[in-house]
Write a structure and sequence with these properties.
single chain
């Protein structure tokens, strides 16, 4: 497709009888339609794949939920993006708090980016080097554990960001 378009553009540039803008416009229409179909295609949660420590944390979380007889959490790319924003902000401002300087509380964060939810839970952690350490810390905290094993939560996103000293900042956002 690209070679055909280039050939047509070269021919049009050399030809005095075919104006370049008209030919270029007709040559670009199929390419623009193809691009529009890709850009407008729905993005599904099932297609999103985590990698690295974020994937490991979700896997461990789902093992814990399974052990408690609770369905696994579905990974949501929008929640992942927001969890990463929150982790980056905590790292950048050396601020370890659920209330964000930039985004406010978890509900305000979701509202700001127009992510729909009925209920939201958020867990944060700092300084734990591995997903296992993070999950263990959260399981030993009644409020954090309640978020992780609440059957009402069906989707989640995880973000982790390392500061210049290698200290990780973790965020888990869960929604119903």
């Amino acid at each position: 497709m690209k070679n055909l378009l280039l050939t047509r553009l070269k021919r049009a540039a050399l030809s005095k009888s075919t104006p370049l803008p008209k030919l270029a416009m007709f040559s670009l229409i199929p390419m623009l339609l193809a691009l529009a179909s890709v850009l407008c295609a729905p993005i599904t949660t099932a297609a999103y794949q985590y990698q690295g420590p974020e994937a490991e944390l979700i896997a461990i979380l789902n093992e814990e939920r399974k052990a408690q007889g609770i369905p696994p959490i579905n990974i949501d790319w929008e929640l992942t993006r927001l969890a990463r924003y929150k982790s980056e902000e905590m790292k950048n401002h050396q601020l370890f708090h659920h209330e964000s300087l930039i985004y406010g509380n978890p509900e305000q964060l979701l509202d700001r980016f127009q992510v729909p939810y009925n209920q939201v839970g958020a867990n944060i952690a700092m300084g734990h080097d591995t997903p296992h350490q993070v999950i263990n810390a959260w399981l030993n905290s009644p409020g954090h554990k309640a978020n992780m094993v609440a059957p009402i939560f069906k989707a989640a996103g995880v973000g982790v960001s390392l500061d210049d000293n290698g200290i990780p900042y973790w965020t888990l956002i869960l929604v119903a």
